[in-house]
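Morning F.,

Quick status update on the modeling queue. The single chain you submitted on Monday has been processed. Sequence for confirmation:
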Amino acid sequence: MSVTDAQTRDYLGGRGVPPFVIEQILAVFAHLRAGGQASITPAVTNLLGRPARTLREFLNAHAKAFTTVPEPTVPEPTLESAR
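Structure tokens below.
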């Protein structure tokens, strides 16, 4: 799906996003479209001592964290809370 800068401006502006924020968002995406952030560096490997995982590998390893809803914890009543 391709969305033009004008469509993005109209959409975000229509939802109350300030013009300067819209322009910053558009600048970031223009940078990415032009290949910014496309290079791979050894930073993660150097920091972790192992190669970085792909997003797919990370999500597969932690799927439960994204698919289960924890039971709400309700504090046990105390004599103080009963007053």
